[in-house]
Structures are given as C-alpha cells and as structure tokens.
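Example record

One chain of 261 residues, shown exactly as stored in the release files.
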Amino acid sequence: MKAVVSAVLIGAIAATSLAGVRARVYRADEVTPLPWADPNTPDVYQDIMVGTRLTIFIESDTAKSSWNGGLRITREDWIRGTFSGRGYNTEENTYDDSVLPAAGDFPLIFLFSSEGWYFNLAVTRGIMGEWFLLDYRAQAVGKCDIGLYEYGSDRELPANFNPEFDDLPPGRTHWLQGLTFNHVPSRDYNDDDVVDFADFALLAGQWRGTVPADPNATVKADLDGDEAVELADLALFCDYWLERTDIVDPNSEPNGIAEGL
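Predicted structure tokens for this chain:
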C-alpha cells in the first residue's frame, strides 16, 4: 500500500479539503498521484496513454457507522476505460483484495451492470482512512468519466459531472465526485510497460514515411494523424518519454538491470 504521502498529494488536499467519502487516483505504483490537467479544475486528470493502469482509492476523512455507494462508468465510456477489483471470491461474489482494513466490519464490494457499469461498495463501522481500491485501465483513445455516488444524502453535483449519469443506480442516490480521464495513443509500442529506446526505434523505422491510418497497426507512430511521421510526431512521442503504463518488474538476472530501464 502507499508507504509515503507525496508533496503533490499534500498540495491537493490543502487546495481541496476532504468532504467525507471521496476517490483519489494514483499511478499503478499506488504511491504517485496522477496530476490534474489544471490545478484549478479538480478531478480532470492529465492525459494518459492507452494501456495505462491506475489505482483508485476510496477513502473517508471521518469514521462512519455505515455507508453505501459505489463507482459507475456508462456503457458508452466502458469501451474506453474499465475498472476491476482484486482477489475475486467466487463464493461471496466479492473482491477480497480490494477491501482495506479501514473499511471496518463486513465491508462489501461487488460488480453489477444496469444501464452502465457499477462497483457497489458498503461499509459498516468504517474508520478514517482508505476503504477500498480498484484498478482502472485505459482501453481506447477518448474521454472516460467515472462517477462516485452514495445512497441517502444530499450533495451538489461535481463540477465535471457527466450528464449521461442522469440515469442513476436504483434507490435514492446522490453524486459525490466525477473523475475525468482522457486517453491518448500509446507510445509503448512493444508493450513492455515503459516508453524507452526500444519504442523510439520502432518509431524511427517509420520516419519520414507515409503512414495511412490503420486502426489495427501495432505501431501508431503517426501520432498527429496527418499520415506522415515527422517532427510533430516525435514531439508528441517525447511527451511520454520514460513514462510507465504499469509497474515494471525487475529483471530476474541478478547481474542485469531493471527491465525497461
């Protein structure tokens, strides 16, 4: 779990104080917060590459005797981004490894769908801290909105509320927070979870060439969509230099270097 609290997170908390239950978004390492695109626009995040995995923590700044709510993605957005739990328990139809100690007694987390996709969450005698974690994966280019909701309370809509969420889950439901992600084409052409010289070599192999748009192409070096690989594409590639889409495992060879470095 998160071993340290970064200065970025501290600044974010200072700028927008916690108000009960909320979601926080981290890189796959569960330590590095994903920055907002604009520090004055909460929960609209910097662009991420297709294939990037994030970790979403559901946390509370107060103890609660009980709480029910969840996360939702619309069906339309589900093709661009998905979330998943950890440690699926087939007998209980829940995700054991997505439940954290602060969730208290008899916490519940399960997936269901109805006019959209939901993870339902429930807490009994929860304490202050992190209650649940879910993994998010950018699947396709485009924007994806996630809504955090709870049952039985009155709250104002988040600033980046998606009107497609008008069809709420059943019951007296209210929105707490909207998370907005924008996915851009991956620069990790060899799928080793890091953008490095191996990916640069694949881009260079198409340099100055005419590249008709091919949605099935493995290497999409024409990042600006003008059907040519030139300096503009190199600049867009470099924007994500050494960025990791997931955790890169160390090389098993003791005399080797970390894979992807």
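Notes: The chain is about 10% helix and 35% strand.
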